[in-house]
Design goal:
By secondary structure, this protein is mostly helical. It is 64% helix and 0% strand. The chain has two domains: 44 residues, Arc Repressor Mutant (Orthogonal Bundle), CATH 1.10.1220; 49 residues, no CATH class. Helix 1 crosses helix 2.
Length: 98
């Protein structure tokens, strides 16, 4: 049984839409397929800190620091790593630790 798709309206700047369309044409797939492929690729596994910081919203680090003041560096590192895991990986980790 095929999985269901979720319809999602997305606003892109004209220049970005043109770049996505150009890449889709290069790989001979639809714009939708190009966006899905690139999202899947970007969300696989645990990204390096540098890659994660490039996609963080402005002031994210300051906000996170405010909420995690009482954590050690190791605890903070564990939280960052945990957040990068897929839901399946999170469940497996919790089962392992339980």
């Amino acid at each position: 049984m095929p999985s269901q798709s979720y319809k999602f309206v997305l606003r892109l700047p004209d220049e970005l839409r043109d770049r996505v369309a150009e890449a889709a044409g290069l790989y001979r797939r639809s714009i939708n397929s190009e966006i899905v492929a690139r999202l899947e690729q970007s969300l696989v596994g645990i990204p390096e800190d540098a890659a994660e910081r490039r996609v963080e919203p402005p002031f994210f680090a300051q906000i996170e620091t405010t909420f995690r003041r009482d954590l050690s560096n190791d605890e903070d590192c564990l939280i960052r790593l945990y957040r990068r895991l897929s839901s399946q990986q999170r469940r497996a980790l919790i089962n392992l630790l339980s």
